[in-house]
Amino acid sequence: NNDYGRPSMPAPWASAIPAPGAKWTSRHPCPPTWSSSSTAGDIIATLTCNPENSIRITDIKDMKRTIAIVAGGDSSEHDVSLRSAESILSFMDMEKYDCHVVEIKGKDWHVHYGTELLPVHRDDFSFTAADGPHHFDFAYITIHGTPGENGILQGYFDLIGMPYSTSDVLVEALTFNKFSLNRFLQSFPDI
């Protein structure tokens, strides 16, 4: 359950949508509701107490999801990671996804957006281009080494609520530190 006492919604790219008129138990005075409109394929999401602030989403199943292919990193494999990201990008279905490589090197985070390199806002992992703000729905982590394989990036994504492709913070941190992993595994003599 999330902070409002209702079941957590599926990831934004999931095909499941709440049933029309779905109701949740909520401590919030105005929980979100979903209802069908009179036009087939339209859904109205009411996210506030004021119905005038409702949003209309047309054919939500056909909406493109925005995927960040996160690459680079701080290790000597920075350039290898970028090549991995380009390879992954070549296999993505551009009919379904808007994919952008996000390159990370220390505190320099930027997105490859067309021919531009634009800064990534680290408070919410978004970026702003000439055509407006862009928000990612999912992070596909391809960084070799720090910060992609040691739990740091996973912790960041957990804090901002961004779904990502790797194991969680604990698993990444434990498996990155071979000494700690060996000590942990020694506690299971039958393995």
Give an overview of the whole structure.
The protein is of the alpha+beta class and 191 residues long. The protein has helices at residues 78-91, 152-160, 169-176, 178-186, and strands spanning 33-36, 42-46, 55-58, 65-72, 97-105, 108-113, 116-121, 126-129, 132-135, 138-141. The protein is 21% helix and 28% strand. The strands form 2 sheets. The chain has a 7-stranded mixed sheet with strand order 9-8-7-6-5-4-10, covered by helices on one side. A 3-stranded antiparallel sheet has the order 1-2-3, with no helix packed on it. α1 links the parallel β4 (65-72) and β5 (97-105). Residues 1-29 have low confidence and may be disordered.
Keywords, separated by commas or semicolons:
191 residues, alpha+beta, seven-stranded mixed beta sheet, three-stranded antiparallel beta sheet, 4 helices, 10 strands, 21% helix, elongated, disordered N terminus
Mean pLDDT: 79
Strand order in the largest sheet: 9-8-7-6-5-4-10
Number of strands: 10
| Biggest sheet architecture | 7 strands, mixed
The helix tally amounts to: 4
Work out the helicity level.
10-25%
Form type: elongated
Order of helices and strands: EEEEHEEEEEEHHH
Low-pLDDT stretches: 1-29
The helix-and-strand class reads: alpha+beta
As a whole number of angstroms, the C-alpha radius of gyration is 20 Å
Binned strand content: 25-35%
N/C terminus separation: 35 Å
